[in-house]
Amino acid sequence: MQLGRTARIVLGTITVVVLGLVYLPLGVVFLNSISTSESLSWPPPGFTLEWWGRALESTGALEALGTSVVVALIASAIALVLGTLAAIALSRYRFFGKETVNLLIVLPIALPGIVTGIALNNAFRTLMGVDLAMWTLVVAHATFCIVTVYNNAFARLNASGTRLEEASMDLGAGLFTTFRLVTFPYLKSSLMAGGLLAFALSFDEIIVTTFTAGTGVATLPLWILQNMFRPSQAPVVAVIAVILAVLSVIPLAIAQRLTAKDAAAVAR
Amino acid sequence: MRIVPASAPGPAPLGPGAPIPASSREGSMTTQRLSAYLAPRRRLRLAGLLTAPVLWLGLVYIVALAALLVTAFWTVNELTGQVQIEWTTENVVEVFTEALYRTVTLRTLGIALLVTLIDIAVAVPVAFFMAKVAGTRLRHLLVVAVLAPLWASYLVKVYAWRALLSSDGLIEWAASPFGGSTPGYGIVGVVLTLSYLWLPYVIMPIYAGFDRVPDRLLEASADLGAKGWRTLVSVVLPMIWPAIIAGSIFAFSLSLGDYITTKIVGGATQMIGTLVYTNVGAANNLPLAAAISLIPIGIILIYLAAVRRTGALRSL
Questions:
Q1: Partner residue opposite A3 with nearest CB, options B148, B228, B314
Q2: Considering the domain boundaries, does residue A36 fall inside one?
Q3: Which of A17, A213, B74, B249 is surrounded by the fewest CB atoms within 10 Å?
Q4: How high is the pLDDT of residue A260?
Q5: Strand partners, A47
Q6: Which residues of B touch A161 (CB under 8 A)?
């Protein structure tokens, strides 16, 4: 686009300032994790590695991390299956009630978390009469994760059109063979992206989690919330936060490589 | 993100006149037979695809939601604290007539709208720079830079703002030489923190929206004599409007139901979420909590219905 020099500079400056402001609080968390102050006061009175040592020995945090990973993995797996099925149905068929199905998929994420939370809590305990446990948490998470997989798969299916699939069928491949050899390879990277988003969504969720996790089931966000206000634990929470932020680069890098590969494939 | 409008692809089931896949070297006899059986049966294939997701969402979510709405018309036994199936409109009437709920609803709506507007105002120039000004390498870098904070825990970010806003925090330290001071814990803190939290969710769809605007259109507009602003308003804005709405759904909906941010940086500020939370937890009055939750459900449904025509739901 033909933009004046000034416009480019202004836009660039805004972007830099905004990104700076986005990272400032995270930087403060990092400094708090090595600050001698327990109450997060600024500027840090001194520096220490004590909290890092304490955090790495904290069994509560490590167990919570394990729980979070397991819950997020199962929830994403369920969301992958259901989201893909829904995406194929809505992108390849025209039928009555299509808009309603679309709304049904979006609704769990569009409605406030607290509504979803108390609705599921009430359904599990009163309607079904079961105790909250880890599986109730997984079911709740899978429900609001479907939309991320669905959106990614649906976009890809719509962009691809049906020509390749038709060609495959014309050449004699059956429905399943076509899916396995034509549709799935094309969908794969978008499913990875959707699955990653679902994992992230589940991993970080706190509101629905509060209402659907059984006693004794502590995910990392629940652990953080419980420990945040304890004075001696506050810097330990900051350490966990820094570790999480650093670890988060891995899935992002995967997602980036996937999109880069896609771009290369399209260019060919 | 989608490229083709939803109306474009025809019915195109997987090859209407598909020959019997006898020549296919892949797959066992059973799958071949199933495939041959399903090929001409469009409705059956559709049912096979839709059954699992619709059953899951219907049974888990819609039933739960319906049950919650019904609970709003039940009562709580004052002695045992158990929910009783005794029909009453008391809770709903209370929620819609008492001043407390009106005040809190208006405050929550105000906060959610303000957060949405702030996020859009910040996201549009950033997303535009990312999609249309930055080169390929820088663009990839910026996408990562914007997405990375999404992976840092929500709580950690709220916690960071609690530290920033505190009376011996960074904001106080930076502002005091100029005679300013930290806004402290209250509505301003809540608005700042929520805007911060949802910003990446708003930037990404808008960035994708800008990305879908072909450069050729912008060049054509410039060739026809339109200045930058004119192109922006007449060509770009109508095209990215659905993306802006899609971004706003995140910021608006996520703010509307929040109670944890309010609890951590809001001081005594109450939002709708706070009222629902206290009635489920401390007060143990699920019917009243359900009645209160009718407010955000209603607001969101109205919002979704209003934006549905823009096609924004499909570019989420």
A1: B228
A2: no
A3: A17
A4: 67
A5: A35
A6: 4, 9
Cβ-nearest to A119 among B13, B65, B129: B65
Min Cα–Cα distance to chain B from A166, Å: 5
Asked if B52 and B122 sit in the same domain, the reply is: no
Does B113 lie in the same domain as B30? no
Domain shared by B50 and B138, yes or no: no
Range of the domain at B274: 90-315
**Measured between CB atoms, does A262 come within 8 Å of chain B?**
no
Number of domains in chain A: 1
Residue type, position A120, single letter: L
Asked if residue B28 has pLDDT above 80, the reply is: no
In chain A the first and final C-alpha atoms are separated, in Å, by 25
Q: Would you say residue B11 lies in a domain? A: no
Of residues A85 and B25, more confidence is placed in A85
Test A206 with B155 for CB contact under 8 angstroms. Answer: yes
Claim to verify: residue B100 and residue B49 sit in the same structural domain: no
* Residue A238 located in a structural domain: yes
User: Is the confidence at residue B116, as pLDDT, over 90?
Assistant: yes
User: Is B115 in the same domain as B229?
Assistant: yes
Reported confidence tier of residue A77, pLDDT bands at 50, 70, 90: very high
Q: What is the pLDDT of residues A204-258, one digit of tens each?
A: 899 999 999 988 889 999 998 888 888 778 788 888 888 877 777 777 777 767 7
B238-289 pLDDT, tens digit per residue, is 888 888 988 898 889 889 888 999 999 998 889 999 999 988 876 778 888 9
For chain B, the domain total comes to 2
Taking CB atoms and an 8 Å cutoff, what residues of chain B touch A88? Answer: 49
In chain A, which residues have their Cβ closer than 8 Å to the Cβ of B70?
A: none
Domain's final residue, options B71, B100, B133? B71
Shared domain for B34 and B155, answered yes or no, is no
Q: Which residues of B touch A12 (CB under 8 A)?
A: 129, 133
The enclosing domain of B281 has a CATH number of: 1.10.3720.10
Interface confidence: ipTM more than 0.85: no
Residues B37 and B150 in one domain: no
Residues 173-232 of A with CB under 8 A from B: 173-178, 180-181, 200, 204, 206-207, 211, 220-221, 224-225, 228
Residues of chain B with C-beta less than 8 angstroms from the C-beta of A245: 148-149, 151-152, 156
Contact (CB<8Å) B257/A111: yes
CATH number at residue A153: 1.10.3720.10
3-state class of A44 per DSSP?
Answer: coil
Q: What is residue B5's predicted lDDT score, i.e. its pLDDT?
A: 38
Q: What are the chain A neighbours of B297 within 8 Å (beta carbons)?
A: 111, 115
Residues 6 or more apart from B123 whose CB is under 8 A from it?
Answer: B199, B202, B203, B206, B247
Can you give the residue range of the structural domain that contains A159? 59-267
Residue of A nearest to B164 (CA): A25
Closest chain B CA to residue A5: B133
Q: Which residue of A has its CA nearest to B159?
A: A228
- Could A29 and B159 be called an inter-chain contact, meaning their C-beta atoms sit closer than 8 Å? yes
